[in-house]
């Protein structure tokens, strides 16, 4: 009996130990599962949509860095996921409740209020936390492949302009040498046949230039032709003075309209806001740039990597990121502390479009009243990596535009009365700017 009792006690101890071990294991796996739960891919999309304006993974911005935020909060502050749910959905409420850590973060980041996200579910927050714990890898392989392909293509199929020019110079030299040799050969043949070259020259009569000089009619016609053609070319050259079509200066900070207006669909008038209400479109001040670039501190570009054309021109992600750093230096922005240092340096932009002082042009009249698109005068800026002057901006070009452009009168009270009167006069429904007085000299010159 004693032996049986002893075995029963051992069995009980082993059984209790097994139960405790299983419970402990379950709790550990449950915690690990909680940390690892969520879809990082979905979390990345939610993070970029809701969090990226103020947070980055590995650096301070308007708010703190969020890489491994859950594990750090749990280890340093003893806060669990329920606290994170409450904070994300209603951060002002957590602060007002007197939570120590919430108030600490609030004061540390200049009491910048965090936008509450009551519409995010717990599953959404789980996905975001999964992304901050293990973000999906960036597709760098595609970029590298494009780079290798671009280099290989240029080396295997490309022929440089220097090679072509060198080949042409060699061919020209050979032709000159052949002509000299042929001339020498012909002279030797003539001498061998008993031909006196000097006597042949003297018997050929007057030189051509003397015969031409003695013909007064031919001289008169030639002089008239030369004067007219000279006047034509001089007039054409003078008409190009001040016409800078195609002018494409390199700016101190590279600004890509292709990236901003094309890829990111930023409205032209967000940066050039004065075009709506004033004569000039204006050069945006750098604080307009910082509205976005306080948060956008690096260029990530196309997920598939830069194109071969961009690589050939040096427009890599690193290049664009370097230009953002130039912006920070110009405005005196401290990335680490997310604050201005007060040490700024003005950017010396080079003006591209410049009408003469004798011309009056009002942007607001064309943009706000007439509804003309920016691309009409400035070309497809959304495709321009470096901004250039698209149109000649001459008087003839402006006049043609006024003759061909119909005035937009729908829902435009500015033109209502004059459109009613002129449509009766001309017997048409659509009126051009020229028909409404757009060719009158005083409209642009006064």
From TrEMBL:
Superkingdom of the organism of origin: Bacteria
Pfam families tied to this protein: Cytochrom_C, Cytochrom_CIII
GO MF terms, alphabetically ordered: electron transfer activity; heme binding; metal ion binding
Domain Cytochrome c: 38-136
Keyword terms of this UniProt record: Electron transport, Heme, Iron, Membrane, Metal-binding, Transmembrane, Transmembrane helix, Transport
Annotated transmembrane regions: 163-182, 217-238
Annotated protein name in UniProt: C-type cytochrome
Organism: Maribacter polysiphoniae
